[in-house]
Amino acid sequence: MADERLIAALDFHTMEDVQKLVAELGDSVSYYKVGMELFYSVGAPVVTWLRQQGKDVFLDLKLHDIPNTAAGGICSLMRLGATMLNVHASGGYTMMKTAVDRMHAEADKMGIKCPKLIAVTVLTSINQEDWEGLGQAIQIKSAVVRYAKLAKKAGLDGVVASAQEAALIREACGDDFLIVTPGIRPAGSDTNDQSRVVTPAEALSNGASHLVVGRPIYAADNPVLAAENIIKEMENVK
Q: What is the pLDDT of residues 48-104, one digit of tens each?
């Protein structure tokens, strides 16, 4: 049985690969992430197809632009039917507030359910050395919490952040704030290009609401078994 807290990443560039994995996983997974590689290759039809299969979709395109442009982009993406969309928190308070306000207004006008809008804090591939190379003087975890509080103030539903910072975000932003955590690796998995990674159980214990898992599922010899093992680990944390 699917656990809605698990979001499986479709890090492919063809519909054939998407359809093969979704069919193989069946009822084990109900929520999928569509990122840049897939969306830029296939486009809107992948979202439409996933929704037709009864799946929830996190459309992970990380919009970051001037407020009017970002808001217009979010409204265009909203019409595809995704469950959750995102922007970069580093775009600032005005960009985030403009995007969420316009999105809600457009959804009301169209009479459709409004998707969740969350903000990327600091990419989980960035380590402290990379961070300092960007000229940042404060610690990553301090910046993440600052971005999360700014996103909540702007009216967003949550953030994307490493589970290593999830407990601090949960304390700062409350129980109803979504914390979507990539960089999830079951015990014994390779970290690949992620720097700030944790296990599924650790992520949920720290306060994460959703876990994004890619390679450990789609690159597994048995993706169904991999997904079910992750879900079993998640079920031990309520």
A: 999 999 999 999 999 999 999 999 999 999 999 999 999 999 999 999 999 999 999
Output phi, psi for 85, to 5 deg. -130, 165
Tell me the residue type at 117. Answer: L
Q: Which domain holds residue 170?
A: 6-235
How far is it, in rounded angstroms, from Cα 117 to Cα 171? 20
- Provide the 8-state DSSP code for 72: H
CB 83 within 8 Å of CB 115: yes
In the set 62, 97, 109, 152, the catalytic residue is 62
**1, part of any domain:** no
Here the CATH number for the domain that contains residue 77 is 3.20.20.70
Give the predicted TM-score (pTM) of the model: 0.93
Whether 62 is catalytic:
yes
Confidence of residue 193 (pLDDT cuts 50, 70, 90): very low
Please give the Cα distance from 96 to 153 (Å, whole number): 9
